[in-house]
């Protein structure tokens, strides 16, 4: 008698979080980040959460780029007041620092969710929450759309590089608008084509059907989910105590 195949997370991942944990942590992170701007230590902890998760998922390049931007913003925030800058430059620096401290953590956590979560895992998690399919289908398509669009953009860049259509070349100096034409037109065509193909693929997999879909993914909370829940709960209590 054949046994049912049960989905398990890939073994090569150093730190695996349930998709439900990721979504909840992102919502809490997006909420807390606007209440802790005066507490530099707590703000730094919230910033380092997506950095740590990106490194654990072996996304070293975005983790170090974001970490480097945060370190620069950290020193600007601490020591920037000791120097006198023109008013416009001070405003621009302040805006960039606040963007890195307040918005970048949420953006990077969203990037981590898209890169580390498979569409079938996300769909299974949303079904467990009884989320309407009107929300599940578009988001599941986005999970496949973003990586596919990135590959298309990379292919377009390689083709332009082979034809020496890039900044600083003779072709660019003769016709600067050429770089926009050769970049945007193929990209827009790819966007339309990818959207149609992914929508058809989603429907062929049974999304949007009248009957309840079965799923091979069996999600369960693990030790890392418990650790993340404890960390987030501690940060929430810390934030509440700090504002009393």
From TrEMBL:
Q: Which Pfam families match?
A: CbiQ (PF02361)
Annotated membrane topology is: Multi-pass membrane protein
Give me the segments passing through the membrane: 23-56, 63-81, 87-114, 221-241
The record's listing under InterPro entries reads: ABC/ECF_trnsptr_transmembrane, ECF_transporter_component
Question: What GO CC terms are in its UniProt record?
Answer: plasma membrane
Q: What is its main location?
A: membrane
Asked whether the keyword Transmembrane helix is assigned, the reply is yes
The cellular location(s) given in this protein's UniProt record come to: Membrane
Q: Which UniProt keywords apply?
A: Cell membrane, Membrane, Transmembrane, Transmembrane helix
Descriptive protein name:
Cobalt transport protein
Q: Which organism is it from?
A: Lachnoanaerobaculum saburreum F0468
